[in-house]
Design brief:
This protein is 47% helix and 12% strand. With 376 residues, it is an alpha/beta fold. The protein folds into three domains: 5-92, Non-ribosomal Peptide Synthetase Peptidyl Carrier Protein, Chain A (Orthogonal Bundle); 101-214 and 284-375, Alpha/Beta hydrolase fold, catalytic domain (Rossmann fold, 3-Layer(aba) Sandwich); 219-267. A seven-stranded mixed beta sheet has the order 1-3-2-4-5-6-7, with helices on both faces. The protein starts with a helix and ends with a helix.
C-alpha cells in the first residue's frame, strides 16, 4: 500500500532513527514540492538551479523539521541540492561541513570569478547569473559565516572581506590563485567586494558591483536631497484624486516615512544599530539565516565606504532600487575610475529572466576585455 505523504511523515516521526533513504524520500518529496512550487516538481530539480529565495528555503527547512524533527543546515541543502542526496545525508547524519566557497559552475584555466551575495549571505539569487556568464574559468560563490549556526555572524564589512580572502587562500593551500582574482558583488555584497579589492591590491582583476549603494547616512548630501525631493513629489502625486479625510491619513503616514528618512540621515554611527527598524529588515526566517541577515544590516549601517584607487565597473539597473540612491553618483566620488553599464530591470528583477541574460552578457564582455588587456 502506498502511503499519502502526511501519513508517511507521521509514521516516520514515530519510528526511531536510523532511517533509510527509502524511508525519507516519500516524506521529503511533498515538503520539497510545497516549499519550492512548480520548479520543485521537475525530476532533476536542484535547489541551486531553481532560482528560489530565502523565504522558500526557510519554508522547506521548517517543513522538514516539523515532519521528522531534523533541522537541515542551510548550506548543506545548497551543497546537496536534491531530495535523494538530502535523504542520504539525513539517514547517515552526515552533513557537508560549512564552507564559504561554493562552486556554482566549473571551468578551466587559472582565472576564477568569485561572486558575493547580498546581505542574506546565501547565494541562491546569483545562481542563474553564474550559469549564464560567458566565462571559461570556474565561478565560485562566497557565503557569509554563521549560516549554519557554526559561528557568530560577522557585523563588520571589513571582517567579512578578510574572511572571504582567507577562504580563497584555503582553496589554494594558503596562497592566492595563480591568475587575477575577479570579483562581482550584488547589492550589499558589492561593499564587501570593494574591501576585498583593497586587501588584494594588484591581484584584483575585474571589480564589478551590481547595483551597490551604501546606507543613507553616508550618501553624498546632494544625492540625499535629490532622493528626498523625488520621494516628496511621489507622495504629493499619490494625493491626487483622494478625498480630504483619506488624503490626510495618507499624508500623515507618508510624513512619518519622511521623518524616518531624515532620521536615518542624521543617525549616530553607533554600533548598536536598531536593525528591526531598517527598511531591509525581514523577520520570520530560519533562525540562523535571520541572525546572518540581522548582522549584515548592522554592518551595512556602520559602513562608510572609503575611496578606492582602482577601476570599478558598476552594473546599474535601469529602474533602480526604491530604497537606494543612484549608485553611479556614489561611486563616481569613490572609484579611481568608473565604468557604468546599464542593465534592464529593477534592483530585484535584473537578476531574473529575461534581464539576467543581459547582465550576464555584460559581465562576460568585461571579463573578456580584462583578460585581453592582461595578455597585452
Amino acid at each position: 500500500m502506498r502511503l499519502e505523504p502526511d501519513m508517511a511523515a507521521a509514521l516516520l516521526a514515530k519510528t526511531a532513527p536510523p532511517w533509510t533513504t527509502a524511508d525519507l524520500v516519500p516524506v521529503l518529496t511533498p515538503i520539497w514540492r510545497r516549499a519550492f512550487g512548480p520548479k520543485g516538481h521537475a525530476p532533476d530539480a536542484h535547489v541551486m538551479r531553481m532560482s528560489v529565495g530565502i523565504g522558500r528555503v526557510t519554508r522547506f527547512l521548517d517543513g522538514v523539521q516539523d515532519a521528522i524533527g531534523v533541522r537541515v543546515p542551510a548550506t548543506a541543502l545548497m551543497r546537496l541540492g536534491t531530495i535523494e542526496r538530502l535523504a542520504v545525508a539525513i539517514a547517515r547524519n552526515d552533513w557537508p561541513p560549512p564552507s564559504a566557497p561554493i562552486l556554482l559552475r566549473d571551468g578551466v584555466g587559472s582565472e576564477a570569478l568569485y561572486v558575493i551575495a547580498a546581505g542574506t549571505g546565501l547565494v541562491l539569487e546569483l545562481c542563474d547569473l553564474a550559469q549564464a556568464i560567458p566565462f571559461p574559468g570556474p565561478i565560485w560563490a562566497l557565503q557569509l559565516p554563521g549560516l549554519d549556526g557554526e559561528t557568530t555572524p560577522l557585523a563588520d564589512i571589513g571582517a567579512m572581506a578578510a574572511h572571504h580572502i582567507a577562504a580563497i587562500r584555503d582553496q589554494h593551500s594558503s596562497a592566492l590563485p595563480a591568475g587575477p582574482v575577479h570579483l562581482i558583488g550584488y547589492s550589499f555584497g558589492g561593499l564587501v567586494c570593494v574591501e576585498m579589492a583593497r586587501l588584494l591590491g594588484d591581484r584584483i582583476g575585474l571589480l564589478g558591483l551590481i547595483d551597490t549603494t551604501c546606507y543613507e547616512t553616508y550618501w553624498p548630501r546632494t544625492e540625499w536631497l535629490r532622493v528626498a525631493g523625488l520621494r516628496t513629489l511621489r507622495r504629493m502625486g499619490e494625493l491626487r484624486g483622494m478625498r480630504p479625510r483619506p488624503a490626510l491619513r495618507h499624508l500623515a503616514g507618508r510624513g512619518r516615512a519622511m521623518a524616518q528618512h531624515i532620521g536615518r540621515r542624521f543617525k549616530a554611527k553607533a554600533g548598536d544599530a536598531d536593525f528591526t527598524r531598517s527598511v531591509y529588515y525581514v523577520d520570520g526566517l530560519d533562525p540562523r539565516l535571520q541572525a546572518v541577515r540581522n548582522a549584515s544590516i548592522i554592518a551595512f549601517e556602520r559602513h562608510d565606504p572609503a575611496p578606492i584607487d582602482a577601476p570599478v565597473t558598476l552594473f546599474k539597473s535601469r529602474l533602480g532600487d526604491r530604497h537606494g540612491c543612484d549608485p553611479a553618483r556614489l561611486w563616481r566620488r569613490l572609484a579611481g575610475r568608473l565604468d557604468v553599464v546599464m542593465v534592464e530591470g529593477t534592483h530585484i528583477t535584473m537578476l531574473r529572466k529575461p534581464h539576467v541574460e543581459g547582465l550576464a552578457a555584460a559581465i562576460g564582455a568585461r571579463l573578456d576585455n580584462q583578460i585581453r588587456c592582461q595578455i597585452r
